[in-house]
Design goal:
- This protein has 288 residues and is α+β, with helices and mostly antiparallel strands.
- Helix content is 25%, strand content 27%.
- It has five helices and eleven strands, in the order αβαββαβββαβββαββ.
- It is elongated, with a radius of gyration of 19 Å.
Amino acid sequence: MEFSYSLSQRFSFPILAMQFLIIHSVSSLNLTNEYLNHKCLFNQGKYNSGSEYEKNLNWVFHYIRTRPFENVGFSHTSNGTTTSNFATVVLQCRGDSYGSKSYGSKCRTCLDTAILGFRKRCPSIKGGMIWYDQCFLYVSTVDIENPSRTNYENVFSMHNPNNVKEDAKLFAKRVLDFFSELTLKVEKTTSDGFRIILYAAGEKKLEKNTLYAMVQCLELTMDCKNCLTWSTTKLFKNDDIKQGARVFGSNCDVRIFNWLRNLEPITQLTCVPSSVSDSFALMTSVDC
């Protein structure tokens, strides 16, 4: 794990060269790694081109990209000596997008996509967060505590537009029971004993249907199980039970898919965000 730290020595490199490296490596994932949402932290201010903050932020992006983070799917790195030029970046890849050589490339490519997405959607803004299907990127002028308490403000949900055709309340109960099982399995220690992976996934038969579910927490999260338990309560609101749903936040996310037997999985759906603040961008046509 890479812990946050402040470096007095900095390295500069051409921004255009960095952007070329990123653009070169993202093209293969554009069709499979959907953009989900973003939030610009306008209260952290803006930076000027060539400023000390921009140099520090570029250094952090470059440092993460040159480290073998795709083996662990996580990075937390900072640079800066004063409040005005301090930059910290946290990356969390989806639990099934790293570890092996083939899956690790998804994590690395998602980072490149997220960096470009952050620069495009929050130009010259010092802080922000952006979600993709394969990873979450957080940029800030304020360092994150390790471990950190759950932030319940930056949360949004996405739902399959199709209602459950069976007993909806029974379906919802079984889904919540399934998530409870996964939540109990979310903490796993790596073979070297140095890291705890906060990720679990599984499938469960429900009559003619197969449920696929995934839960994950940001590796810095102090109360992962509480975060997941709270998030699962946002899957179904006002007895509106859908065939699939996802809830994302800056500390954890939960996902449920309901693929019917003998039918192809739905790969393109119009998802409706709920309880999203005005500072969030609205989402369009993504895989639920």
